[in-house]
Amino acid sequence: MGIYTRTGDEGQTSVIGGRVSKDDDRVEAYGTIDELNCFVGQAISFAEGEKFADIRAQLEEIQQELFDCGSDLAFVKINESKYKVKDELAERLEGWIDACQEENPKVERFIIPGGSTLASTLHVCRTVCRRAERRAVTLGKHTEINPAVRRYLNRLSDYFFVVARTANVRQGVPDVEYVRSKKVFRK
């Protein structure tokens, strides 16, 4: 099988159930998810050693689920029986978030992306994930989509924020706080 097909040379691409313009909202949504998946792969490469084995395993699972998200958004005609992403995935992310939160110090100020290489990469994942979520919201404004994908992406960006902080904690690197901020997070 050749890698090039020449079928997209005129600015169209295939989706499940038809062809659309390469700048279609659907392509933007699952393309951004694909971009996110690349950064997750990069984060995995920085999650070395036993102290990151759990995070590495989670990120590897997330990569599979991101492919599922893209697949679900690629349907031109709704076929709920074919959807792969279910609400249970977002609920599982909540469990991972809660476990990481127990390791992290309390947040008092806004956190600026940074710290360790792994944490910085996870913050990139967070921001690309937020963009993927926005693209899914845009798509959902004019066509029906699997709502579990949108919920998953929303929770996933929270996961990336929390696990970035956990990566810093495990490496003994402090979070980078926004120093001009007053203490805004109190319990």
UniProtKB/TrEMBL annotation:
Keywords: ATP-binding, Cobalamin biosynthesis, Nucleotide-binding, Transferase
InterPro entries: CblAdoTrfase-like, CblAdoTrfase-like_sf, PduO-typ
Residues of the Cobalamin adenosyltransferase-like domain: 3-167
Molecular-function annotations in GO: corrinoid adenosyltransferase activity
UniProt keyword annotation of Transferase present: yes
EC number: 2.5.1.17
Catalytic reaction list: 2 cob(II)yrinate a,c diamide + reduced [electron-transfer flavoprotein] + 2 ATP = 2 adenosylcob(III)yrinate a,c-diamide + 2 triphosphate + oxidized [electron-transfer flavoprotein] + 3 H(+); 2 cob(II)alamin + reduced [electron-transfer flavoprotein] + 2 ATP = 2 adenosylcob(III)alamin + 2 triphosphate + oxidized [electron-transfer flavoprotein] + 3 H(+)
Pathway assignment: Cofactor biosynthesis; adenosylcobalamin biosynthesis; adenosylcobalamin from cob(II)yrinate a,c-diamide: step 2/7
Family, similarity comment: Belongs to the Cob(I)alamin adenosyltransferase family.
Descriptive protein name: Corrinoid adenosyltransferase
Lineage: Bacteria, Bacillati, Bacillota, Bacilli, Bacillales
